[in-house]
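Sorry to interrupt, but I need a hand with the structure work. Could you add the entry underneath, on a fresh line?
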Amino acid sequence: MLFEHLTRQACRVRKLPSCETRRHLWGWLNAVFNKVDHERIRAVGPDRAASEWLLRCGAHVRYHGLDKWHQDYNGLPTGPLGKYKIQSIDATESCIMKLGFDHLDGLEHVEEIKLCKCAYLHDDCLQRLSEIQNLQRSLLRLWIISCGNVTDQGIIALHKLSNLQYLFLSDLPGVKQKETTAEILRKSLPSLVLELDLEQ
């Protein structure tokens, strides 16, 4: 009798979502977080809209003239349109992806970006980043750490960041031709300080 009761109860238990289903759900949700709203950019300006995107994805931002890193979406500073300009972005463990990189187009004052443990960062993201004309002029320092989907191709694309002064690369298993890639960057950007902590 007890066995029959347990069998009936087990049949009523709903099947839990598989790992594959959960992965698709998170991928969809992260894509929603990265969606660009061009009306919002026009309404609040590129720096505010980019800040909202970055914080929504789990990144932090710092503004020119301020020491504080902002990580709370509801704690973003308010003021007149264009008052706060993003100087630094720390995207450590954030869900930023190429879809959202259009938010960076209007930023004119970004000097440093840290991309660490970004699961959705691929070569096409770095290609897109390096094609943003404002960043080609303003970006001085870049860190790319523990981003497993980045390969030599993505790193080589960074040669378009013509004012880049410092690049730190660490724990990038997809970078297989470390010396060749470094040489290409050094030839393209002779004043670049390139620091490597990569496996041979």
Q: What stands out?
A: The longest strand covers residues 86-90.
